[in-house]
Structure formats: C-alpha cells, structure tokens
Design brief:
Helix content: 55-70%
Structural class: mainly alpha
Shape: globular
Number of helices: 9
Distance between the termini: 28 Å
Largest sheet: 2 strands, antiparallel
Amino acid sequence: MNANFSKNSLKHQIAQQIKKSIFEGKLEQGEKITELQVAQDLGVSRTSVREAMLLLELEGLLISEPYKDTRVTTISQEEVLELLIPMRLHIETYALKKGFDTWGDETNEQFKLILENMRKAIHYEDYPTFIDLDIQLHELIVMSSKLDNVIRIWESIVHRIRLHFLYQNSKSGTLEKWLVDHEELIDILINGKSLELAVESLRKHIIDTNIPDVYLLD
C-alpha cells in the first residue's frame, strides 16, 4: 500500500486505503493486519492507523479481540444464508416497490451504464470492478426509494455484502454467467411495465446468483 495523505480526516483516508486493499483481494479474509506494518507502508502514525482500524471494525471489515491479532473478517455460509440474503430480499424488494414508479430516463440510463461497464469488466476479467458495479446496481435500486431508514439499513450491511461477493465469486469463476444474469434483470427493470414482475425478477436474481455457489465460502 502506498499513498499520500493530507492531515484532514487522516483516519478516514487510511481506512479507505485499507478497505481498497481488502476489496481488491490484496488483503485476504482472515489475514492478520498490524498497526505497525500499515503505519510503515503508508508513512503515517500508529495512532492514526489505530483510529482507522476502529472505523473498519465498526463497518464489519476487521475484527480484533483484546490481546489478540486484528484480522480481516471472514464470512460464512451461515451468515449469507441466514442473515444477508434474507435482509437483502426484504430491503431491496421493499425499496423497489417504493421507487419503481418514480424511475425516469435518468435512472434507466444509470442502469444501462452499469451494464455497459460490466461488459467491459468481463472483457478484462476485472473481478473487483465487476463486484463494484454489482453493488452499484443494487444500491441504485435502494437509493431510488429515497427512504432514509431503508438506505441506512442497506449502508449498515453493504460492506458485508461486498465481502460475500468478493470471496464467493472469486472462487466460482463464472463472470460470463453473472453478466447474463444481470442483463436479464436490468432488461426487466428498464423495459418491464409490471412492478410485480420487477419484484419477482429481483427476488429470483438475488437467490439464483448467490445460493448455488454459497458452498464455496467454507
């Protein structure tokens, strides 16, 4: 890791750099991370690193215990099946119901741009970018609801969702299939006239693109 930091919001900048390393797979799940090493890599104080790491613990990306190591968090089949997928189904379908009728050309163009960039990521076999675009797609659905409480709940779990995508999808190696799945969903979201069809397609998409490969997490 290497970066130049300003004094303003230093802990947030350090946290962002660590987060980037996690999401790009440079720091793997369960990997030990130390204040000293990060401070040396980034040329910052250990105090600032400690503050940044505390932020990442709150976001569910790092885990530490008193007198033990700090490590990148892991994610299990159980968490995905029993917590993340049910929460996503409730949050995203509820947001879709609230936002669907308000979508216009601008929202549809955002969906199309995400899909276009997904195709580019597939071409270059760029897993991290594809995952980021996947998150953007689902986040667009949530944000379009314009419901603060729904958005806050989403934001509280989005990093765990991203880790799930990263750890599971990097093992499944089915980028082309993911693209087809997202093409089908976006086509219905943009061109479908029925809210019921859109909700059912989103529900099916979340289940079908996650559950078959969840065994890869353990």
